[in-house]
Write a structure and sequence with these properties.
Layout lengths: L1 H6 L5 H4 L7 H15 L4 H5 L1 E4 L2 E4 L11 H11 L6 E6 L5 H9 L3 E7 L2 H13 L6 E5 L12 E6 L14 H4 L15 H9 L4 E10 L5 H11 L6 E4 L5 E7 L3
Parallel strand pairs: 3-4, 3-6, 4-5, 6-7
Antiparallel strand pairs: 1-2, 7-9, 8-9
Helix pairs in contact: 5-6, 9-10
């Protein structure tokens, strides 16, 4: 992957180029990348790109690297938005913009707003949006949850991959994650649910009756989330969707009509 990146070709092309000579400059660049990789820096940051939901996204250390399990979140969101009727969604904590862009790509009648507290992350998200030619349907706002939105703003669906790692988990994470990816996009208090508490309690005021809140969560958080949802008394019974590893991964909960 690193060599293909340096030579600006596809990985499969390397097999046909087996007898090609690499220029001294490309060789130096390649060795520098390999050196960084041996320090644990993720390949996605080294090549500046990650595929997600069959789309390519720019990534850098300002944003979380999109994970395959998050594709379940996107699939559930797409499933709940109409195919050929207008709808409006909000992506909370958009990072690279991958979730919002993938949803908009597959629902051409949907418009969306994507928020993040990080101005640097939003710069990446906007470039990804332009790359996928969705500038007319997606708006990016620097905001702490809903604080930067107009009070009357409402959506048919809110989707989020919030930070949900527990404080005590942080030191046990893979070094590639804890040493290179933004901690603010991963860790969220003692039980990992600090941001979730705000998201669950405040979202009903931002969702049309009968609309949905969808959010990715971590291991052993189902019971805690079920309790948080029940306390609001504003949602129907929650659904917990599993990822490909058969682990509960996505909270799907509908606002009462």
């Amino acid at each position: 992957m690193l060599l293909a990146h340096v030579l600006s070709c596809e990985r499969i092309d390397l097999y046909a180029m087996y007898d090609a000579e690499v220029t001294p400059g490309d060789r130096t660049t390649f060795r520098d990348l390999v050196r960084e990789r041996t320090k644990g820096k993720p390949v996605a940051y080294l090549v500046g790109m990650r595929e997600f939901y069959s789309l390519d996204f720019e990534v850098n250390p300002s944003v979380l690297i999109p994970r395959p399990e998050t594709e379940v979140l996107v699939s559930e969101a797409i499933h709940r938005l109409p195919v050929d009727a207008p709808s409006r969604f909000l992506d909370v904590g958009t990072g690279s913009g991958a979730i919002a862009i993938a949803i908009a790509h597959h629902r051409p009648h949907a418009t969306g707003v994507a928020v993040d507290v990080s101005a640097a992350a939003l710069e990446v998200a906007r470039r990804n949006c332009t790359k996928h030619k969705l500038d007319e349907r997606l708006t990016f706002v620097e905001s702490d949850l809903f604080a930067g939105l107009a009070p009357e703003d409402r959506f048919d669906l809110i989707v989020s991959n919030p930070p949900y790692v527990r404080e005590e988990e942080w030191t046990t994470l893979d070094p590639e994650v804890k040493n290179f990816e933004p901690r603010s996009a991963l860790e969220s208090g003692v039980d990992g649910l600090d941001l979730f508490r705000r998201l669950i309690s405040e979202s009903p005021n931002r969702i049309h009756p009968g609309g949905w809140l969808l959010a990715e969560f971590g291991i052993n958080q189902v019971d805690l989330l079920r309790d948080l949802v029940a306390r609001t008394e504003l949602y129907e019974n929650p659904l917990f969707v599993e990822d490909d590893s058969r682990k509960p991964r996505v909270l799907c909960v509908r606002v009462k009509s």
